[in-house]
Automatic annotation (TrEMBL):
PANTHER family from the UniProt entry: PROTEIN NPG1, PROTEIN NPGR2
Name of the protein in its database record: Protein NPGR2
The organism's taxonomic lineage, starting at the top: Eukaryota, Viridiplantae, Streptophyta, Embryophyta, Tracheophyta
UniProt entry tagged with the keyword Repeat: yes
TPR repeat positions: 602-635
SMART domains named in the record: TPR (SM00028)
Keywords: Repeat, TPR repeat
Keyword Hydrolase: no
Length: 714
């Protein structure tokens, strides 16, 4: 005891069995500290400390002051006396022994290379090094339990600094295995990032993670995989943005992550590759986190490739198909996603898989023009398989069935069949609305939309108001639908007031569609100059949009395309206004701007045709309308305009005129202009039956015009 307190070396004859009243306890009591008993649990003291002490004594002939304190500190730590153990560890002057530790580690590596056992008498033994580094590690653990995280991290960092500076090329295999040196080092490498996180030092935590993965610590595969996963999760969910790694050691052309998400994706993909190579066990959470990261970054096709590369049996075949379908759907490849879902829903796989049925119905609803399948059968089958077991999914299935039936009604040949499907669509959407207790804005939106398209405007207005109230005006779609319903009721001032209120509550980024609707309302009221000013304001907003999203990654590709399409349509709207004012040069300038953004556009060709028609150049107009139909054979305005020019230039009863008008009505039965021109055509026939049919057409045109919004509801 006196030797320890005085710092003198202990002789060989010192008894190494620690007494119950250790020097740590004495020091702790003397300094006024209270010991924390039982915090580590009722662990039995490790008798390995005696063996290590004997090994150190045999190699160096003496147990110095620091080694003795390391030994006694570990004994107190194992008993659970953390404050006492910490008091003993703090008595170790690690700074003074660091040069000896470094010298011992570096020369130990050289001896391993030469396979020589010659040793300097003054050199510290590997056992002593292991004992001292373990003391530093246990000091860090004690500080962690006591809540002193930053001090714990700084203490733990000392171990890595010493080993890294001593062995810059990395540790050799099985280095220090006989004295637990490798075990201590592995634990320190794994603990340091956690301590920095507990200390709320994000930058230091990230640097320590990178240090753990880039330096050769001789860690086993499972430990490395654990560190990689923890680092990836920290990058994804910590909420901070770390500086990119400086990987100068990599070869030219190698991928270097630019931000947190890219670095996390890289780590998770490395882990998936290790699973594929059978280097580590399969962990389903790796795929979950990678799915999130790639979804956020917009790289869903990369996720699809990763799913396809997984070995058979890693995940269930059904789960793989469904995940791949989600990836393709998110990447905009709806046909491929639907093909995968149909494969999954085949009799060979699982025809009763409800998530796949719902998703297939959703894809069909959203891409009806491409899939040619409204998705009614998928939604009905989902309802049958649910059988009332889940109210939320049943609500979703009813909603999708209603939307599907609405799309399906457009395929009806007879009016009776169309009315029947529309009635069923309304009933199903109302059921979904009741199941959601009028609290689902998406269901309310489509219910209001269906009422509006069936020209039941009072009911449509009621549900549109419910949407705005439920969402507290946070969604532009609700405001737009409400203003369009009001415009269909010819309440233009009220509709414009709604748009102005929406503009006050909406940020600049979301005002594009609102400003365009406002301009359309001003045109409907004959305020053409005000409309031009509104369009000019909208174009300024869109230019700021384009510059903002121009340099972003593919996550914003859809947004960029949406902005470009809206800008093209705004130039077309302005061109129509200038044509109505006979300002040809301004109209041509607008059309030139449109062409610079989008080379082929049926609407631009139609606007050019209308300009020629206004000038009396009917042949040029007819050519422009035909160009529009070459680009889009279903372009309703061009079909009607072609019929009007043909009727003006040729025989009033030209069969081609009727053909174009009927084609227009086949695509849009609610087009008042098509019904009106069809009525004129019947009137030109001059027969009694033609007069009757013409009167019906005029009546339909008048009824539709009375309830026509300034913009389509959908």
């Amino acid at each position: 005891m006196r030797c320890l307190q005085s710092g003198e070396p202990l002789g060989r004859a010192v008894e190494m069995v620690p007494s119950s009243e250790s020097v740590a306890t004495s020091d702790c009591s003397a300094s006024g500290h209270s010991c924390l008993g039982g915090q580590i649990g009722n662990k039995k003291p490790d008798t390995g400390n005696i063996e290590e002490a004997e090994s150190s004594l045999r190699e160096s002939g003496v147990l110095n002051y620091e080694e003795a304190r390391a030994l006694l500190g570990r004994y107190e730590y194992q008993k659970g006396n953390l404050v006492a153990a910490l008091h003993v560890f703090e008595g170790i002057d690690i700074v003074s022994v660091t040069p000896k530790i470094k010298d011992a580690l570096s020369k130990s590596r050289e001896r391993r290379k030469r396979y020589s056992q010659n040793n300097d008498e003054q050199q510290m033994s590997v056992h002593a090094v292991a004992l001292l580094l373990e003391a530093v590690f246990l000091k860090a653990k004690s500080l962690q339990v006591l809540g002193r995280f930053k001090e714990a991290a700084q203490s733990c960092k000392v171990i890595l600094d010493i080993v890294e500076s001593s062995l810059p090329e990395g540790l050799p295999d099985n280095f220090g295995a006989e004295c637990k040196l490798q075990e201590t080092l592995s634990k320190a490498v794994e603990l340091l990032p956690e301590l920095w996180k507990l200390a709320d030092c994000q930058r230091e935590a990230i640097l320590s993670y990178r240090r753990a993965l880039l330096h050769e610590w001789n860690l086993d595969a499972e430990t490395i995989a654990k560190i990689q996963k923890e680092f990836a999760l920290f990058l994804l969910y910590s909420g901070g943005e770390a500086m990119p790694p400086d990987l100068r050691s990599q070869m030219d052309g190698s991928f270097v992550p630019r931000n947190n998400i890219e670095e996390a994706i890289l780590l998770l993909m490395i882990l998936l590759r290790k699973v594929t190579l059978n280097r580590i066990e399969w962990d389903p959470s790796i795929l979950d986190h990678l799915s999130f990261a790639l979804s956020v970054s917009g790289d869903l096709m990369i996720l699809a490739n990763q799913l396809e590369e997984l070995l058979p049996g890693t995940i269930h075949r059904k789960e793989r198909f469904y995940a791949l379908a989600l990836c393709y759907y998110g990447a905009g490849k709806n046909v491929e996603a639907l093909d995968l879902l149909r494969k999954l829903l085949s009799n060979r796989e699982d025809p009763r898989h409800v998530p796949s049925l719902l998703m297939a119905s959703k894809i069909c609803c959203e891409n009806f023009s491409v899939t040619k399948d409204p998705g009614v059968s998928f939604a009905r089958m989902a309802l049958e398989n649910l059988d009332g077991r889940c109210n939320q999914l049943e609500n979703l299935a009813n909603f999708l069935l209603g939307v599907s039936l609405s799309a399906y009604s457009k395929l009806a040949i007879s009016d009776a069949e169309r009315v029947k499907r529309q009635s069923e669509a309304l009933h199903t959407l109302e059921t979904a609305c009741k199941l959601s207790r009028m609290e689902d804005p998406v269901v309310l939106y489509h219910l209001s939309l269906e009422y509006a398209e069936q020209r039941k405007l009072d009911a449509a207005l009621h549900y549109a108001k419910c949407i705005v109230k439920l969402e507290v005006g946070s969604n532009v779609k609700g405001w737009l639908l409400l203003s369009r319903v009001l415009s269909a009721q010819k309440r233009f001032l009220d509709a414009e007031s709604i748009i102005n209120a929406a503009l006050d509550q909406t940020g600049k980024w979301d005002q594009g569609d609102l400003l365009r609707t406002k301009a359309k309302l001003q045109i409907a009221q004959g305020q053409l100059k005000s409309a031009i000013e509104t369009y000019t304001q909208l174009l300024a907003v869109l230019q700021v949009h384009s510059k903002s999203f121009g340099s972003r990654n593919k996550l914003f590709k859809d947004k960029r395309d949406q902005i470009r399409n809206l800008e093209v349509e705004v130039w077309h709207d302005l061109a129509y206004v200038y044509i109505s004012l006979s300002q040809w040069r301004d109209a041509e300038a607008c059309l030139s701007k449109s062409r610079a953004i989008k080379l082929y556009s049926s609407t631009r060709c139609h606007a050019i045709g209308k300009m020629y028609e206004a000038k009396g150049l009917y042949k040029e107009a007819l050519k422009a309308f035909r160009d529009a139909l070459d680009i889009d054979p279903d372009h309703v305005p061009s079909l009607i305009s072609t019929a009007m020019v043909l009727r003006h230039c040729s025989d009033q009863s030209n069969p081609a005129v009727r053909s174009f008008l009927m084609d227009a009505l086949r695509h849009d039965r609610f087009c008042a202009s098509a019904w009106y021109n069809l009525g004129l055509l019947h009137k030109a026939y001059g027969t009694e039956s033609a007069f009757v049919e013409g009167a019906e057409c005029f009546q339909a045109a008048h009824s539709l015009e009375e309830s026509e919004p300034v913009e389509p509801f959908r």
